[in-house]
Each structure stands twice: as C-alpha cells, then as structure tokens.
Amino acid sequence: MEQAVFESVRYSAVCHNCGAELECWGTQALTYNGLEWDVESACSACGSAVAACGGDIPTERREQMLSEHGPARLEVSSPPTQSVAIMRVLRTELGVDLAGAKVLVRRVLNGGYSGTLPEMERLARKLRASGISAVATRP
Ligand SMILES: [Zn+2]
User: Cα(88) to centroid of ligand 1, in Å?
Assistant: First the structure.
C-alpha cells in the first residue's frame, strides 16, 4: 500500500453565516480513491465551521498551490521504446486524445511535464503499474 500524498493551501473567503472573513484550508490529496480536494473552514467571528470534500481543485487554488509549494515534475527513466505504453497511460488518466498524448509524451520524456505533487505522484504510480519507471520529484 503506497502512502497518501497531500499538499495544502490556506486562503480566506467570506463566511456565509455572518459575512466575516473565513479562514479556509484546502488540501489536495492522493488516496486510494485517486485525487481528492477537501476544504475545511472556520469563522473566527461566529464560529461556523464547514468541511467540504470531493470535486476537482479550483483553478485558482491549484495556481496558489503551484506558486506556494512549487511545481513537481514527472520523471520517466524508461527508454523511448516505451513511449507507446506511456501514451496509453496518459490517454487513460488525463482523458486526452492521441494527438494530445503525443505532445504530452514528448514533454514527459524531456522532463518538462509538471503539476502539483499529488497530481504527478498519481501519474507516476499509474506509469509504474504499467511497468514504466517513473517518479514524481520536486527540484
Ligand atoms: Zn461567520
């Protein structure tokens, strides 16, 4: 069983209950279910606390995560002969078409494919499950 990988960002929003500033803590996690986005928030004024789970990470939070923690890179050390197998994983996991997968596989093999750590770790695990030697790294 591989370990869960997660990364969090803190941000503020407006409390639905009283309109005061709400402190939120968003976490992107890679669990056995795949990628999950959870938000916990607590209002310092009225004490209202909310926890929300599921759904995709909002673009704004993803950008915040990348700028605060830095992007992680997907490193594949397989020979180019495995690029078809890599493309198959990318198509399944990212839902891209053949043309998109061809562009992506080049980026992956050049070490130019990056994202959040949980996202890269998820792909690295899927690639390893297909016999491709891959790791998620952060410079
Ligand atoms: Zn409140």
Answer: 48
> How many CA atoms lie less than 13 Å away from 34 in the CB half-sphere?
6
Which of 40, 69, 98 marks a domain boundary? Answer: 69
CA of 50 to the centre of ligand 1 (A): 10
Query: What spacing in Å lies between the alpha carbon of 62 and ligand 1's midpoint?
Result: 25
**Final residue in a domain of this structure, among 69, 89, 117:** 69
Report the separation in Å between the CA atom of 138 and the middle of ligand 1, taken as the mean of its atom positions.
Answer: 37
Residues 76 and 65 in one domain: no
One domain, residues 87 and 65: no
3-class DSSP state for residue 58?
A: coil
Task: Express each pLDDT in 75-113 by its tens digit.
Answer: 998 777 889 999 999 999 999 999 999 999 999 999 999
CA of 51 to the centre of ligand 1 (A): 14
- Cα angle 75, 59, 16 (rounded to 5 degrees) comes to 140
Q: Which residues constitute the domain of residue 84?
A: 72-137
Rounded to two decimals, the pTM is: 0.89
